[in-house]
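To the wet lab folks,

You asked to see what we're planning to order before we commit. Fair enough. Below is the target structure as C-alpha cells, and below that is the sequence we designed to fit it. If anything looks off to you, flag it before the synthesis order goes out.
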C-alpha cells in the first residue's frame, strides 16, 4: 500500500518529520484511489521557481503522472545488492539516466503495476534503453533477501529489462536510503501490509535528481488494484519520454 511522500496530513501526526520535502502527494491508496503529486517544495520550506518539464511530455501526460521538476541536486548516494546478489551503487550508474522507484517484493497493490509500466517504458525507449537504468529499492524490512527481490523480478517480467536492478540489503542501510529520498515506510509485522510512499525519481547521468512522479492505481469493489489499459500505456510512454530526455 502507498502513502503520500511529503506534507503531513490530518490524522497523521505520528509520522516522523523528514529533512526535506518534495511536494504534496495525497493519501489515496488507503482510500482506494490514486496517489497524485501536486507540487514541489524546496528544502527549508522555500518554494523555488519550478524548472521546465522534460521535453516531449504533454501537459495532460504530466498531469496524469503527477510529474514535477526538481532542482538539479545530487541524488542521495546508496550502495546495496541487486536480485543477483551483485553490489550496486548509485555512483556505479553514472553516465546513464536512472529511473528509481521504491517497491515491496510482496506487494499486490501498486508495485506490480509500476513493474508493468517499467517493462512498457523499456520497450518504448527503443535504442535509448541502452542508456537508461531501471532501479527499485526494497521497502519491506521482513522480506529483504536476494531471493525475495529475485522472485518479484521473475513474477512480474522485469527480467526482460537488461538494466533492471531490484536492490536490497541490511535494514539500517535500507532505512538510510528511504530517509534520503523522503520515503515513508510503515511495516508493522511480517504478515501485515507494508504502507509506503510510491514515488518515481528520474536521475540524470551526472547523478542529479531532475524529476519526480507519483504512480497511481484504481481499485475494484473487492479492493484489487488495477489501472486501465490506456493510462497504463500512457505511464509507460511518459516514463520513457522523461528518461529519453535525460539520456540524450
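Sequence we intend to order:
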Amino acid at each position: 500500500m502507498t502513502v503520500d511522500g511529503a506534507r503531513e496530513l490530518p490524522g497523521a501526526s505520528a509520522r516522523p518529520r523528514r529533512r526535506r520535502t518534495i511536494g504534496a502527494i495525497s493519501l489515496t491508496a488507503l482510500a482506494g484511489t490514486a496517489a497524485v503529486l501536486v507540487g514541489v517544495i524546496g528544502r527549508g520550506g522555500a518554494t523555488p521557481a519550478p524548472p521546465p518539464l522534460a521535453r516531449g511530455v504533454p501537459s495532460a501526460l504530466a498531469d496524469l503522472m503527477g510529474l514535477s521538476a526538481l532542482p538539479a541536486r545530487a541524488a542521495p548516494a546508496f550502495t546495496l545488492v541487486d536480485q543477483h546478489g551483485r553490489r550496486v551503487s548509485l555512483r556505479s550508474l553514472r553516465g546513464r539516466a536512472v529511473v528509481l522507484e521504491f517497491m515491496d517484493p510482496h506487494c499486490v497493490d501498486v508495485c506490480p503495476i509500476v513493474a508493468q509500466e517499467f517493462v512498457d517504458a523499456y520497450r518504448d525507449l527503443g535504442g535509448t534503453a541502452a542508456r537508461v537504468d531501471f532501479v527499485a529499492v526494497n521497502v519491506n524490512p521482513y522480506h529483504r533477501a536476494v531471493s525475495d527481490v529475485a522472485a518479484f523480478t521473475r513474477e512480474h517480467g522485469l527480467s526482460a529489462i537488461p538494466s533492471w536492478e531490484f536492490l536490497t540489503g541490511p535494514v539500517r542501510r535500507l532505512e538510510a536510503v528511504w530517509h534520503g529520498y523522503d520515503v515513508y515506510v510503515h511495516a508493522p509485522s511480517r504478515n501485515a501490509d507494508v504502507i509506503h510512499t510510491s514515488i518515481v525519481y528520474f536521475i540524470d547521468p551526472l547523478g542529479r535528481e531532475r524529476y519526480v512522479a507519483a504512480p497511481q492505481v484504481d481499485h475494484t469493489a473487492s479492493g484489487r488494484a488495477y489501472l486501465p489499459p490506456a493510462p497504463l500505456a500512457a505511464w509507460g510512454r511518459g516514463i520513457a519520454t522523461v528518461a529519453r530526455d535525460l539520456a540524450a
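Structural context that might help your review: Confidence is low (pLDDT under 50) at residues 4-49. The longest strand covers residues 68-74.

Thanks,
Computational group
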